[in-house]
Specification:
This protein has 262 residues and is of the alpha/beta class. A 9-stranded mixed beta sheet has the order 1-2-4-3-7-8-9-13-12, sandwiched between helices. A two-stranded antiparallel ribbon has the order 5-6. A two-stranded antiparallel ribbon has the order 10-11. The longest helix is centred in the middle third of the chain and has 15 residues. The chain is globular and about 45 Å long.
Length: 262
């Protein structure tokens, strides 16, 4: 594998009939001599890959370990660039195919460990991370969504090919994605119903066939089910008084990297 220069490069790939873009971030510590993890970070509604690259809390955590990151850009929906997570927020786009094609494309240029590919995301990107856990557990080892929940409209379609670790971050005072869940009409003509932070936590525990009760919240507000199928975990980190926040990468990354593909 040729050595890649450290820095950010915008890459284009064709998925179906669409040309799609992502920003490939290669950290200075990456040397190409051993397979590195890959973290794919999805932006929020009306964002972009480059904007997410600039604001992501993950780079500071992953760069020192030589982790490669990718920041895809969604296609435009009624409220700008978004991800198709079923009933929202851009219509008739196969973003699961895009996510898988992106991973395959990165693997053609970087030395990536196929057992350590992760999805994270903020807001609408958190929704895409949940959707990936539901529909792309054959490629992604674990996910860490922030400021989004599973949706009542299509949660019954969430049947991962294997149990998958999910680390969710939510704020109790989120003005956009209510902690308790409920109807959201942020995107015109694409109303959705959030399961809520606790409802999403419990649903993932059920999907992963977790046993027992969750742990009590720790100093970071994280409670977790750890006795789940395949050694997976389901975690909810609640920020008391927190708003529409991007989550705590210093909590998420150490947890994500513990989980590799079987």
């Amino acid at each position: 594998m040729p050595a890649l220069m450290a820095g950010d490069t915008t890459k284009m790939i064709t998925v179906g009939a669409s040309k799609r873009s992502y920003v490939l971030h290669v950290p200075p510590k990456y040397d190409g001599t051993k397979p590195a993890p890959l973290v794919v970070d999805f932006h929020g509604l009306s964002g972009s890959g480059m904007a997410e690259r600039r604001s992501s809390p993950y780079v500071a955590q992953t760069d020192p370990e030589g982790v490669v990151m990718a920041f895809p850009t969604g296609l435009s929906g009624p409220s700008g660039a978004a991800w198709d997570v079923g009933p929202c927020c851009v219509a008739d786009v196969d973003d699961i195919a895009f996510a898988k094609a992106l991973v395959a494309d990165v693997m053609t240029t970087a030395c990536i460990d196929a057992k350590r590919v992760y999805a994270v995301g903020y807001s609408m990107g958190g929704g895409m991370s949940h959707y990936i856990a539901c529909h792309a557990a054959d490629v992604f080892a674990a996910v860490a969504p922030a400021a989004f929940d599973l949706l009542e409209e299509n949660v019954d379609d969430c049947v991962p090919t294997r149990p998958i670790t999910v680390v969710s971050f939510r704020g109790t005072s989120d003005p956009i994605v209510a902690y308790a869940g409920g109807l959201s009409s942020v995107v015109a003509g694409m109303s959705i119903t959030f399961l809520g932070a606790k409802g999403t936590f419990e649903r993932w525990a059920k999907i992963n066939q977790c046993n027992g009760a969750p742990s009590a919240p720790d100093a970071n507000g994280c409670e977790s089910y750890s006795s789940c199928m395949g050694g997976t975990e389901v975690m909810l980190c609640t920020k008391q008084g927190g708003g529409h926040d991007p989550g705590n990468a210093s909590v998420a990354w150490p947890k994500l990297k513990q989980h590799v593909m079987p």
